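Async update (no meeting this week)

Hi team, since we skipped the sync, here's where things stand on the single-chain job. The sequence we agreed to prioritize is pasted below, unchanged from the tracker. I ran it this morning and attached the output directly underneath so nobody has to dig for it. Comments welcome in thread, and please keep replies under the output.
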Amino acid sequence: MVMGLTGIVLGISFFIITQAQTSGFEAFFIRTILGTNGAIRISDRFQDLDGTVSKVSEDGKLRFVFRSREDARYVEGIEYPSKLREALALFPSIAGISEVLEGAASLDSGSRKHPVHLHGIKLENHLMVSDLERQIILGGINDFKDNKSGVFVGVRIAQRLRLEPGDRVNLIGGKEEMKLQVSGIFETGVSQIDKNRIYLDLSTARSFLGMPSGGSVFQLSMTDPDRAREVAAQMQETLGHRVVSWQEREKVWLDVFRALSISSAITVSSILLLAGLGIFNVFAIMVIEKTRDIAILRSIGLSEREISSIFLWQGALVLLVGSVLGCLLGFLGTYAISKIPLRIRGIFTTDSFVVTWDPNHYFWAILIAAFFVCLACWIPAKRAAKIQPAKIIRETL
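Output:
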């Protein structure tokens, strides 16, 4: 019984610890991508080659239903950003809107060139939809705000070109060569962004790319990012632009985290299964050894239900003690792991294990343990309840 109890304690604690780690890294990844690319991205305007069908619903509202998206023709970028911004302001869930002009170029430090993906932004708007201010590791926001020729560069770019805040670089590849000054260096932790992306003032970017208007995209933040998928679908139908939620944009990584979470849960649950088998063996042997005692109890008037409850209450006691100790050990283990140094750079940046403190982890751990323990106790209890006292006493005389 002690071994079975130990298995329950370890199974519950390991379940809590593994789920805290997996969901912790997933939540941290989501915060990273929301703070970098926003919750929703609005880009090209589409036109259905077959035309559209207008439909009036029962409440009198007009809806536009597109016949097919397969043959849709896309017009690159947002042509009328001010009008689209006014329309987006009608959605109550939108917390911030940033117009971004994207383009390809190269940075020339004088000794080396590096291809970059430039983002032209209005700083005050972009700070509302990203964590750019927190991501700056060298330099400052004010240096960028007060200088139209300022540029923020990713940390990988800065390392490759050996740049420091205040250095001069040439931006080439657009309509004209442009001299810029490094206002700051940022690190998102997403390697693809840190080695390719730079930020310019929107007007500077338009001048460099020769695009006085249009061609931009919108990056949006939301008060409730979990609703981004349904809001994006509503926007796409209403606004006639390509709208992508962060769930759709990062579907591959979210599926990876989900698979890891399920895999770890199944693996750790095997410990609880083995603990349940151990408890089953203990109770099964107990029923065999106590057959005569059970027969005597039946003969003095105990019902089948009361006999079963004896074993079930013993299982409940084991489950209760195991759950309390397992949750306590899981809590302490999660805290200890969160303090272990771990340097990660790739899809996010962290210098230690990332965990979440979610009551659902404790709930599911106890629920799975309860299932195996109840099953392990119920079968021997039912067998004990079926013992016929007269037959057993007669055989032992």
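Quick observations from my side:
Residues 94-222 form one domain.
Residues 49-53 have pLDDT under 50 and may be disordered.
Reply here if anything looks off.
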